[in-house]
């Protein structure tokens, strides 16, 4: 394979080589001497005789005639060499500057890629892209426009290298007419936006600028997609947390109306909409009900934003049975996306369960009230009715004694009659206050019970200690249970007043490992529980045991003669 021959520099192709110059520098003086001798000898033979001075003068003339062209030629050659070297030096300097600039740009592009790859929000990425395009291309203005493929939204971010001369930071008008360079932002063949830079600092863009802008647009496409995915994941996580919290809020102990209002308000918050409407069409329960809610901004504008706004509607169904529909209007971003529809569908499922549970609670409260009415009727018949029958018999006896002119015996019967009426009056007052305490709202189970205990203490003269280690919130969702617990405590205290002859009593409430304990104890005369179970004579104890069984609790009675009595009820509650 022949060896490659390095090309000669330009001046070497049109000028003699340095070796030839050396030969000429030696040959020319010698040639001048030889020519002078030959000419002198020829003149001496053929012509006049030259003096020594003439001979030297002739030699000098010949030397000058030969040296001057040679010197001019050499100087010109050196000029061409110098010019060529200067041009090559300048070319090398330009190449070095271009290489350094390209290296700096590549380094800056790499740093820009790393900066874009960091965890940033979509807005931060867009602002960073336009800022980097200004820095990398040393331009005066930059503009980035991106579109969202899921929701057809257009986002535009602009930046300029320096504020306008008048101090206004708005987009400079002169940027519109400046030299422009554009690059499409493409990811996997799909165009998602455009990056435009204007006003190069050097007055014109070069091909390298276009390549650099395209590389930056490629980095920007990946970063924009990643930022969108991060924001979508964060938004989905936030929505799922909000959906879970909304489900828990709806599952809390609320009335049906409160649940319906909560559904429409939470749907506005979850989907960041302007308005929401819930229509319950289940006529089998309570007919058609419509509940509406609006965001604060929509309320300020009188609901105008909801008119003609994009709408999203889903059915509210429970076990395949449609009970209504939920409609939201006016999304914050101007359009609903598929994720919104899925989110509203999930929320509607939570709402259906919450509405059904609220209906069950309302029915349970109604049944508990009916059951309590029936129980009061039985107690009035079995307790108050017996006392009134006893009073009626005593009145007849008094009439007979008065008719038989036996006033002393009649007076004794009247004393017994007065005591019976007084006891009945006390029982009626306690029953009325018990009913008021059971129906009181806002104080909770412990608050209602303590209020009754204080009233009992004042009316009976018995000192009662009340200890509440907790206020079980689980009872609020079980109105029948709370009412039965209150009535059991009231019946126990009534037995203390009527039968225990006690000076002190104590009511204690606490929970332990999901079990509620309510205990009523006294320092009275006590009794033998087995005797009362066998004789079936203590009506109040049997009533308390029936109530405990109805609410899934257990009632225990511990008593000994002259050692007082302790009645304890245990019932499972939520931890």
Question: Mind explaining what this structure looks like?
Answer:
The chain is α+β, with helices and mostly antiparallel strands. It folds into four domains: 93 residues; 108 residues, GAF domain (Beta-Lactamase, 2-Layer Sandwich); 101 residues, 2-Layer Sandwich (Beta-Lactamase); 134 residues, 2-Layer Sandwich (Heat Shock Protein 90). The protein is 59% helix and 18% strand. It has 13 helices and 13 strands. The strands form three sheets. A five-stranded mixed β-sheet has the order 9-10-11-13-12, with helices on one face. It has a four-stranded antiparallel β-sheet with strand order 2-1-4-3, with helices on one face. The chain has a four-stranded antiparallel β-sheet with strand order 6-5-8-7. Helix 2 runs antiparallel to helix 3, helix 4 packs antiparallel against helix 5 and helix 5 runs antiparallel to helix 6. The chain is rod-shaped and about 210 Å long.
Write the layout of secondary structure elements.
Layout: H1 10-14, H2 18-46, H3 52-117, H4 122-137, E1 139-147, E2 154-160, E3 180-187, E4 190-200, H5 207-251, H6 256-271, E5 273-280, E6 289-294, H7 296-300, E7 311-318, E8 321-331, H8 338-403, H9 407-439, H10 444-460, E9 463-468, H11 479-500, E10 504-512, E11 515-522, H12 529-535, H13 539-550, E12 554-559, E13 565-572
Parallel strand pairs: 9-10
Antiparallel strand pairs: 1-2, 1-4, 3-4, 5-6, 5-8, 7-8, 10-11, 11-13, 12-13
């Amino acid at each position: 394979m022949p060896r490659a021959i390095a090309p000669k520099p330009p001046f070497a192709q049109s000028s003699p080589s340095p070796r030839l110059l050396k030969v000429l520098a030696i040959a020319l003086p010698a040639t001048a001497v030889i020519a002078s001798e030959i000419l002198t000898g020829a003149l001496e033979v053929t012509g006049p005789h030259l003096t020594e001075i003439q001979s030297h003068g002739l030699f000098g003339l010949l030397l000058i005639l030969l040296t001057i062209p040679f010197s001019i030629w050499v100087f010109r050659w050196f000029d061409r060499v110098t010019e060529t070297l200067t041009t090559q030096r300048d070319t090398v300097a330009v190449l070095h500057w271009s290489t350094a600039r390209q290296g700096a740009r590549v380094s800056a592009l790499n740093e820009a890629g790393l900066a874009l790859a960091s965890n940033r929000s979509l807005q931060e990425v867009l602002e960073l892209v336009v800022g980097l395009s200004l820095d990398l291309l040393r331009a005066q203005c930059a503009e980035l426009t991106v579109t969202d493929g899921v929701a057809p939204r257009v986002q535009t971010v602009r930046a300029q290298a320096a504020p306008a001369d008048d101090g206004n930071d708005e987009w400079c008008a002169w940027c519109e007419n400046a030299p422009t360079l554009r690059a499409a932002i493409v990811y996997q063949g799909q165009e998602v936006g455009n990056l435009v830079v204007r006003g190069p600092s050097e007055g014109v863009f070069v091909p390298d600028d276009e390549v650099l802008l395209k590389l930056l647009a490629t980095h920007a496409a990946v970063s924009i997609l990643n930022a969108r995915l991060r924001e979508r994941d964060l938004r989905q996580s936030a929505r799922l947390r909000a959906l879970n919290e909304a489900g828990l809020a709806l599952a809390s102990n609320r009335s049906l109306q409160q649940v319906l209002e909560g559904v429409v308000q939470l749907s506005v918050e979850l989907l960041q909409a302007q308005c929401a409407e819930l229509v319950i069409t289940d006529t089998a329960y309570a007919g058609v009900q419509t509940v509406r809610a609006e965001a604060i901004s929509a309320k300020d504008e009188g609901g105008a934003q909801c008119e003609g706004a994009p709408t999203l509607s889903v059915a509210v169904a429970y076990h395949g049975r449609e009970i209504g529909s939920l409609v939201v209007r006016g999304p914050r971003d101007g359009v609903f996306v598929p994720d919104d529809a899925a989110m509203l569908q999930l929320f509607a499922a939570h709402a259906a369960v919450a509405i059904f549970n609220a209906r069950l609670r309302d029915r349970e409260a109604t049944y508990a009230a009916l059951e309590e009415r029936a129980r009061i009727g039985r107690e009035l018949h079995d307790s108050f009715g017996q006392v009134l029958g006893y009073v009626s018999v005593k009145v007849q006896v008094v009439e007979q004694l008065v008719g038989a002119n036996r006033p002393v015996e009649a007076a004794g019967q009247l004393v017994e009659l007065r005591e019976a009426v007084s006891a009945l009056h006390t029982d009626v007052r306690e029953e009325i206050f018990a009913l008021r305490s059971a129906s009181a709202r806002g104080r909770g189970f412990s608050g209602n019970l303590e209020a009754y205990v204080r009233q009992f203490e004042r009316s009976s003269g018995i000192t009662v200690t009340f200890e509440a280690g907790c206020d079980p919130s689980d009872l609020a969702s079980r109105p029948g249970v709370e009412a039965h617990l209150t009535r059991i405590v009231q019946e126990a205290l009534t037995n203390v007043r009527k039968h225990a002859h006690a000076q002190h009593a104590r009511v204690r409430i606490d929970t332990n490992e999901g079990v509620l304990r309510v205990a009523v104890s006294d320092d009275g005369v006590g009794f033998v529980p087995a005797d009362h179970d066998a004789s079936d004579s203590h009506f109040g104890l049997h009533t308390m045991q029936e109530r405990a069984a109805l609410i899934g609790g257990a009632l225990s009675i511990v008593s000994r003669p002259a050692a007082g009595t302790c009645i304890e009820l245990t019932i499972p509650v939520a931890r």
